[in-house]
Each structure stands twice: as structure tokens, then as C-alpha cells.
Design a protein that fits this description.
5-stranded mixed sheet; alpha+beta; about 45% helix; about 625 residues; Plasmid_replicase_bac; 4-stranded antiparallel sheet; Replication initiation protein; single chain; Endonuclease III, domain 1
Length: about 625
């Protein structure tokens, strides 16, 4: 008997269905009509007839809105076959879905740059297809489209091929008119949104200079909003949708116009000619240079605001974390991270603040010693020997009180040797580094004038890296004991879990303050307990570390959710504790031999080196002067 197999047509249909489902956002917008409604979890959103198919950061599908019933324009051998056709039941009007190579329109990672050229090309190819097939050009700007899985429509799933933009451009010539001035400036005269946008933006261009001189962005936005509200009269104006725009859409258009005009528009400003460009230069080149000039000017102003915020925090003895600097400067956290190196490149007169009163232990992690590192210059190694291994011998010269030393350190000094290559103390009888501590008072005496770089909630931050590494391998744990945790978290996948945890880290300082006030515990005690639980401590030990306040803290929704995330990671990621320790060991590995390593930070004698190390770190941290 021959082997049974599925037909290729059936396999292709299943593949494109799966592609549409898995490429949709985790919480897409949805509605019962063509307007943008609510944002719901995917399984709930797809119960509505209209749903968002493209994720917020990518274009994965070209969606063509066919409002005519002439199928011969697209249903023939000369036209690239759409991946799916979503038809109305009572007529032949439909949506065509073309799966295209991913086009990045927004980045969530600083190191990934969004390029304008592919987006412009994709728009031109899309509008070219619309012209060829007589589709409604406004569909490209619509957030929601017909739901291919909804019973209100008849959907034909055809194939799963991914089109390259070049292929579609060979069939339909790209339409670049959307980027040209003149009559075609509005690519879709039937769109109420675009009509209002193009009408009001020119008024904004005329008024922005007046507001820049004597007012602020908020006042300018209110003026633009007033113009938008005055122009929102589309009922009876011959538009396809014969009604005015909702208030939310009008506000969004006003905000877009006001923000861009305030930050970028220079066409009629008093600075015209400031770049002294030759009059015979091509207009396009002038615009490119002007855009570069404005972008650099905006960048310098942003950095200056951030530096002022940074120095203000230093002057008030507040640790200048990225989150606090961003809040003080009234910019986003991502902006502060982007310019963090520049912020610290020119420090104030007193570049760092004195260490806080919190006790920070000098410790050496138990990780294997690297054998392939070059030995440092002798003078550098000798400096560290004087500062660490020979503390006892030089105690009289340094006027140190021996009673301040840890008793274990005193009695076992001969049992340890200083490893110059890594800047660590090594146990003579073992190939592993041994964790040792020094009281704060000793550190202030021995390392006075040195700089300490300290990671904030280090293993908590590193958990995000470990989670991200599992996104591809673990879509969703299926074992029964984990399903209950997923249900309580109200999350769908590892990607959504990682995004949620990243948001928690961005607001960690604020939430830690809430938990301190709720429990009466110090921030350090809370962080120590959380890291201990993350590494596998039981509930009893966790409660003891929190002085019996666990049940009280679990009453806080955010704390409860964080604990569920920790539990899910502990159950799902094999050797989680080891992976976190490996992440921590790698952070300062490039600087072994140049610094004295502590478990989640380093001590550095030279400020320029401390500044360079600080600029290279991807984790939130503080830099302080020991005095």
C-alpha cells in the first residue's frame, strides 16, 4: 500500500494560515467595523471581524483593499497571485494579502537602525500595486483589516510564498508621486485623515516660529489641535466614509503635526541661509544637508539637557542612573541610553559623587580562572597587591585598625595569593576564586580616591538576557505545572514575557520604592531576597529574608507578577542560576588585570578607564568616588 500524504495545496493552505496567525501582534487592535477599536490578546482579538495583521515593528503583509468587483484585474495568470483573498459574502469586494519580505519600520533595540530607504521603497511598490489593481490606497495606512479567520468573510488561502519587493515592482511600477510636491501630495484624496493632515500641517509651518520664540511645545500643540478640530468637517463632503473623524484620531493627527514641526521644520525659519549653501545646489541635496543639520542640532540640545540632569543629580548626592537622568531631563529611557556615553564624556568639575552609606562587599566570584590572558604591566599589578593582598603588612603605614578586618580574612591571608592577571584573590588550594569581603571602612581607607562601578540589581537585569536567549527555543511551556503560572501572568509567549519584564526593569526604581514603603524593608534587603529567590531559594527562606513580609508584599499586584515571572523562569530555563553567574562573569572579563573585580562591579584607580568601562556597559549602573 502506498504511503499516504497531504496534498501540496492543503499544505500550502495550512502554512499561510499559520503564517498569518503567528505573525500577528500578541495583542492586536480589533473591532467590529473598520475603525480601530480595542487592543486584546490574540485569541480574543481574532474573534472580531476586523483585526490588525501586521506587527507594530514590521510590515509583513501588503493589504490591498479592492472596492470594485472586477476580479479580472487581479485574478489572471499575468498578476502575482496573492497569498490569501478575503471576500465579502454579499459581493466580490475583498482584501488581498501579499506576504512580503519583512520591512522594519520601528526598532526596539538601540543597536538596530531603522533605515528610511526600504520603507520609502516599500510604500512606492505598494502604491504601484494599488494603481495597477485599482485598489484603495488608504488601506496601507489602516491599522486593521478583514479577519481571514472570521465567519463573516469567505477566505481563500492560496499559497505561502514570500514575495520580494523587486518581484512586485516588476509587475507594477513603483509610484513615487507620494513623495513629490504639488497636486499629488495627498496620495489618497478620499482619506479624511490625510486630507486633514495636509491641510493643517501647512498652517502649522506658518505659525511654529512665533511659538518657538515665546512659548512651548504644549502651547503649540493646543494651537494645532484647535486647527484640526476646526477642519474636522467631512460629513456631506463627498468622502467614502460620510462622517467626521473621532476625537481620538483628531488628537493623534494634531500631536503628530505639532511634534514633528516643532522639532524638525526649518523651511521658513529665521535661520534660513545659516548653512550658507550655494544657490546652484540641487534642491534635494539642500534638503538632505538641512535635515542633517537639524538632526545634529537636536542631538546636541538633547545631550545638553541630559548632561544638565546628570550633573544636577550628582550635586544632590543622588546616584545618576539612566532611568533617573531620563526622568530629570524629561526624555525617554531609550534616549538616555542612546546618549549615555556622550553624557559622561565631559564630566562636571566633580565627576562623581561619594559612595552611598550602603555597605558594598568586596567579593570575588567562584568562576574558573582564564589561562590565556596576558600579564599586565608590573606597576599596575604591584598597585593592586599593595591595595589588597598586602593589606595586613601595610596596615601600620595606612593607619588601619586591624579589628576592622574580617576575621576569616585575617587568619587565612597566607592561604590566599593575589592573581595579577585578573585582579582577584585566588585560594592556593583551589583553581576556583573564593568569595571574600572587606568592610566599608577598610575600603574607604585603602581605596580612597578610587572609582567604583556598581551594577544595579545585576542578576535581575541579566535575567532579561537569559530570557531573550530562550525566545526562539521555547515558544510556550506546555507541561501542566506551568500552565497555571501562564494563566496568572495573562501572557501568551516568551517574547511577550520578555517585553513585560523589560518594562518592569525600566520602572524598577519606582516599584522598589513602593515595596520599601509597603514592607518597611531597605532597598538592599529587598534586592538580596529577590535575587536569592531567583536563584532557587524556597518560599520559607524567601519569607525569612523579607522578615516575614512576603504575604504582605504578594498583595501588591506588580510584586506578585514579578514572583510569577521568576517561578516560570526557574521551571522553564535549565541551570538558570549557572547561566546568570556566567553572564555576570563575562561583564568585566575584558578588563581583568586592569581593575579589582567585585561580584557585580569593579574598583578602578584611573577615572578615564572607569569612564571607558562605564560607557561600554549595557546594564544600568552607577559610578561613584570612594572618599
Amino acid at each position: 500500500m502506498g504511503q499516504l500524504s497531504l496534498s501540496s495545496a492543503f499544505s500550502a493552505e495550512q502554512e499561510i494560515m499559520s503564517t498569518i496567525w503567528h505573525n500577528a501582534p500578541y495583542a492586536p487592535f480589533c473591532s467590529d467595523n473598520k475603525t480601530v477599536g480595542n487592543q486584546l490578546p490574540r485569541r480574543e482579538a481574532f474573534k472580531h471581524p476586523y483585526v490588525q495583521l501586521n506587527p507594530p515593528c514590521n510590515i509583513k503583509f501588503f493589504i490591498l483593499d479592492i472596492d470594485h468587483e472586477d476580479e479580472s484585474l487581479w485574478n489572471n495568470a499575468q498578476v502575482p497571485a496573492p497569498n490569501a483573498v478575503i471576500r465579502n459574502k454579499n459581493n466580490k469586494k475583498c482584501h488581498l494579502l501579499f506576504r512580503v519580505d519583512d520591512i522594519l519600520v520601528k526598532s526596539v533595540k538601540e543597536e538596530v537602525e531603522v533605515r528610511a530607504e526600504p520603507i520609502l521603497y516599500a510604500n512606492a511598490v505598494y502604491y504601484g500595486l494599488c494603481n495597477k489593481l485599482k485598489a484603495d490606497r488608504a488601506a496601507f495606512n489602516n491599522l486593521v483589516s478583514k479577519n481571514p479567520f472570521h465567519p463573516d468573510f469567505n477566505t481563500e488561502f492560496i499559497h505561502s510564498r514570500v514575495y520580494k519587493l523587486k518581484e512586485l515592482a516588476e509587475f507594477a511600477e513603483p509610484d513615487w508621486s507620494v513623495y513629490q510636491r504639488g497636486e499629488k501630495e495627498n496620495p489618497n484624496p478620499d482619506s479624511r485623515h490625510l486630507s486633514l493632515f495636509h491641510k493643517v500641517r501647512h498652517l502649522a509651518y506658518q505659525q511654529v516660529n512665533q511659538y518657538r520664540l515665546g512659548s512651548d511645545l504644549e502651547s503649540f500643540y493646543q494651537r494645532v489641535l484647535k486647527e484640526c478640530l476646526a477642519g474636522n468637517h467631512f460629513k456631506g463632503g463627498g468622502f467614502r466614509e460620510d462622517e467626521n473623524l473621532p476625537a481620538s484620531s483628531v488628537k493623534a493627527i494634531a500631536k503628530s503635526i505639532a511634534t514633528w514641526t516643532w522639532n524638525n521644520y526649518t523651511g521658513s525659519s529665521c535661520n534660513r541661509g545659516i548653512m550658507k549653501l550655494p544657490h546652484d545646489m540641487e534642491q534635494r541635496e539642500k534638503q538632505q544637508r538641512a535635515a542633517g543639520y537639524v538632526a545634529e542640532l537636536k542631538r546636541e540640545r538633547t545631550i545638553e539637557r541630559l548632561k544638565q540632569a546628570f550633573n544636577k543629580l550628582l550635586s544632590t548626592d543622588v546616584k545618576p542612573t539612566q532611568a533617573k537622568v531620563a526622568c530629570e531631563a524629561e526624555v525617554s529611557l531609550s534616549t538616555a541610553k542612546r546618549y549615555w556615553q556622550e553624557i559622561k564624556s565631559k564630566p562636571a568639575q566633580d565627576p562623581v559623587v561619594a559612595s552611598s552609606n550602603k555597605k558594598v562587599s568586596l567579593a570575588i566570584h567562584k568562576v574558573s580562572f582564564p589561562r590565556d590572558l596576558e600579564a599586565p604591566i608590573f606597576d599596575v599589578a604591584y598597585t593592586y597587591q599593595l591595595s589588597s593582598f598586602l593589606l595586613k603588612q601595610y596596615s601600620s603605614a595606612l593607619s588601619l585598625d586591624l579589628s576592622l578586618f574580617n576575621q576569616e580574612f585575617l587568619t587565612s591571608t597566607s592561604h590566599y595569593s593575589f592573581q595579577a592577571k585578573s585582579g582577584r584573590l585566588v585560594e592556593s588550594s583551589s583553581s576556583l576564586f573564593n568569595v571574600q569581603t572587606l568592610p566599608k571602612s577598610i575600603r574607604k581607607s585603602v581605596f580612597k580616591g578610587w572609582y567604583e562601578i556598581d551594577l544595579l540589581f545585576s542578576h535581575g537585569q541579566m535575567l532579561l538576557d537569559v530570557m531573550s536567549a530562550h525566545i526562539e527555543n521555547v515558544i510556550k511551556p506546555s507541561s501542566f505545572d506551568k500552565q497555571n503560572i501562564w494563566k496568572k501572568l495573562e501572557l501568551d509567549s516568551w517574547l511577550q514575557l520578555a517585553e513585560h519584564y523589560a518594562d518592569f526593569l525600566n520602572n524598577f526604581d519606582d516599584r522598589l520604592s513602593v515595596w520599601q514603603e509597603l514592607s518597611g524593608l531597605s532597598g538592599k534587603a529587598l534586592k538580596v531576597a529577590l535575587v536569592s529567590y531567583l536563584h532557587g531559594a524556597g518560599k520559607t527562606k524567601f519569607d525569612n529574608q523579607l522578615s516575614g513580609k512576603l504575604s504582605l508584599l504578594l498583595g501588591d499586584r506588580q510584586f506578585n507578577k514579578l514572583i510569577k515571572i521568576f517561578e516560570l523562569c526557574r521551571k522553564s530555563i535549565k541551570d538558570l542560576s549557572v547561566k546568570l553567574n556566567v553572564c555576570e562573569a563575562r561583564v568585566f572579563k575584558d578588563y581583568w588585570g586592569q581593575v579589582l573585580v567585585i561580584h557585580d562591579g569593579v574598583l578602578v584607580k584611573d577615572f578615564s578607564l572607569a569612564e571607558r568601562i562605564s560607557a561600554s556597559l549595557v546594564y544600568q549602573h552607577t559610578i561613584s568616588l570612594i572618599s
